[in-house]
Amino acid sequence: MASVNFLYRSTKPKAFLNLRLLYRITDEKFPKGYNDFSLGGKTKLEISRQYWEKEHLQIRFKRTNDIDELNRIQELKEKQNSINQELTKIEAHILQSFNSTDPEKISKEWLQKTINDYYNPKKVKEKPDDLISYVEVYIEERKEHVSPATVKKSNVIKQMLVKFQDSLNHPILLKDINLDFKRDFENFMLEKGYAYNTIARAIKFTKTVARHAYSQGLETSRQLDSIKTKTKESEKIFLTLEELEKIKKKSFTKEHLETARDWLIISCFTGQRISDFMRFNKDMIRKKDDKFLLEFTQKKTGKIMTIPLLKQVREILDKRNGEFPKPLPDPKYNEYIKVVCKKAGLKEEVWGSKKIEVAEKQFRKKSDFYEKWKLVTSHIGRRSFATNYYGEVPLSHLKTITGHHTERNFMAYLGKGDEEKAIDALKYFD
């Protein structure tokens, strides 16, 4: 609880009013269980001592028929009203800032800065009402709170929207994001050869941006909540334990393939993203009761992780004198592990999707039967871990290792179909 008082503290006949902030902090660390504080600052409201001490609080006036006196009284009432309005605004500004600030950060310097901010408010830039400009604002505001990969994906969708807008020859306004927009955008993207799930993600992102705009007071369509998207179930490629054994036993004469092979094995037995496992080093390892643990902070989520260091990973470290392999750039790693899997004999044709060049420097995902090695990417390690150990290890433990917050998110990673999951479940009922 806080309150604001105003005082005339100068010996001069005319001066700026002082402000006093009074507040109480309740905490067991204080002898009484609370402590009262008083801080002072100076406003830029200049008035006379005569007015403040004799006239400001005057509410009763003598009855008179004298015109001059009546005019003086009227002027005084107007002055009182004007000054009271200004004091009310200053008080509201101080209390609003106080209520949104950590009490530990409240100080005399903070109070004076807050008073100064009242007289020199930060200019708030008006938000644009067209979609493309607002997407840029949204991405800029969010980039400090999301991963670089998320920012990159958002910019890719922005370029899709730019292409669609160019085809219309007029700007798309935020209030235009309705069912007609959804239909026209879908048709445009399908004609360009984009995959169904890519289109669905773009529409979902656009809807999220429009919702954000609505929260900022901008006009949006009443049909916004009626825009629905569904993604199609895609084939989830993973490496079985038998395939991983083949990969592990395969030897390579080229060092970069040996390195990629070892990282692939590590990823499949730690269940982490490439942004995390490619940063692993021996300093992250600790031993407790003859058990080896790996501690690190997930780059995407900022979550502090402690996971078991499985024997398959320890075997790689043992042959490398306790060191993890040399890190590889993401594009090179994705390129090398395809070669590794091809040489390991993963040539069975499976249903999946991969990017196909449809025009010069234009790629689209196409679903078809491909040799399995062609579908291997860096994310296969996380999916393989989740799939191979599902049904073998309690779900709560698996979620702890992968860092998934919900069962639903974890299950989305599984490469097993319903029939395989049902067979896995039978072991708990025999």
TrEMBL record:
Q: Which GO terms describe its biological process?
A: DNA integration; DNA recombination
Instruction: Name the domain of life.
Output: Bacteria
Q: Where is the Phage integrase SAM-like domain?
A: 131-218
Any idea which UniProt keywords this protein has? DNA recombination, DNA-binding
* Gene3D superfamilies, per the entry: 1.10.150.130, Intergrase catalytic core
| DNA-binding among keywords | yes
List each copy of the Tyr recombinase domain by range: 239-414
Q: Which molecular function term from Gene Ontology is one that the record holds? A: DNA binding
Q: Which residues cross the membrane?
A: none
Task: List the protein's name.
Answer: Phage integrase family protein
Q: Which organism is it from?
A: Salinimicrobium sediminis
